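FAQ

Q: What does a record look like?
A: Structure on top, sequence underneath. For example:
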């Protein structure tokens, strides 16, 4: 059967119209960019909701199961009381987690993100007690995880800010604001100064510069440069060794935009056994 020319033209027009309608419907259901299909609900979610999907560690994303270390402040449960919680809020996700009144929360001081702390039973009871103190500034290390969209960390080790119970290198520790300096020296040996953060961890000193003034017998002084050493956080007094009658050293250090000035005493175990032991001696400025 032959179809008249006019009828064939009408049929072609109907087919084109139908195809165009199907294409428009497909575009309305999903957005495409460079061949990738994006979920419309995710693309239009508020920025804060999208940002919470990342798991940060000191400003970088942490893969679940990776070992990370985070410094921050212990904060109360952010969802107490739990009244009128929006279904897409952080509290709704926290509510899905098995937790009790002893659950700890840490606010990452680098990113502002909230972490739930899962305390490892192997950590000392004293360290677990630090995690119970709201407002305490701590550094925690362990394995990162994510539960119901909530950042989590299985805690394996805890440091408390400005915990001076032990000097990392057995020296004399002084505090300058949020920094620590540790003087390590032995008679007729070199003189080293370690620059440490609030948690007694070494700070990068490759770009640091400074001077040292050693006060010896009759208060005579010797001046020298401080030079970075290969050991992390370490500056060595160039060309000088500690003499038996040296009393103290005054250091001036420029590092990371800070100018630090501190005098640290030379203390020997023989002359002052109560002040110098394996934990070191502490002075404040």
């Amino acid at each position: 059967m032959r179809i008249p020319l006019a009828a064939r033209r009408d049929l072609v027009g109907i087919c084109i119209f139908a195809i165009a309608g199907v294409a428009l419907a497909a575009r309305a259901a999903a957005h495409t960019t460079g061949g990738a299909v994006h979920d419309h609900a995710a693309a239009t979610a508020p920025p804060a909701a999208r940002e919470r999907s990342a798991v940060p560690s000191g400003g970088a994303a942490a893969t679940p199961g990776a070992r990370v270390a985070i410094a921050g402040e212990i904060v109360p449960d952010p969802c107490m009381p739990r009244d009128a919680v929006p279904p897409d809020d952080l509290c709704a996700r926290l509510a899905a987690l098995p937790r009790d009144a002893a659950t700890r929360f840490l606010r990452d001081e680098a990113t502002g993100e909230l972490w739930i702390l899962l305390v490892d039973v192997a950590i000392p009871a004293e360290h677990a007690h630090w995690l119970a103190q709201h407002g305490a500034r701590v550094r925690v290390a362990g394995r990162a995880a994510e539960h119901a969209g909530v950042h989590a960390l299985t805690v394996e080790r805890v440091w408390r800010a400005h915990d001076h119970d032990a000097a990392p290198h057995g020296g004399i520790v002084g505090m300058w604001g949020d920094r620590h300096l540790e003087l390590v020296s032995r008679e007729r040996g070199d003189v080293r100064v370690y620059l440490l953060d609030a948690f007694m961890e070494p700070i990068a000193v490759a770009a640091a510069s400074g001077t040292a003034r050693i006060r010896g017998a009759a208060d005579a002084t010797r001046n020298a440069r401080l030079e970075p050493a290969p050991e992390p956080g370490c500056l060595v007094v160039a060309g000088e060794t500690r003499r038996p009658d040296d009393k103290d050293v005054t250091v001036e250090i420029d590092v990371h935009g800070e100018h630090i000035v501190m005098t640290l005493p030379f203390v020997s175990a023989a002359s002052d056994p109560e002040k110098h032991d394996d934990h070191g001696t502490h002075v404040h400025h």
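Q: Is there anything notable about this one?
A: The chain has two domains: 53-160, 172-284.
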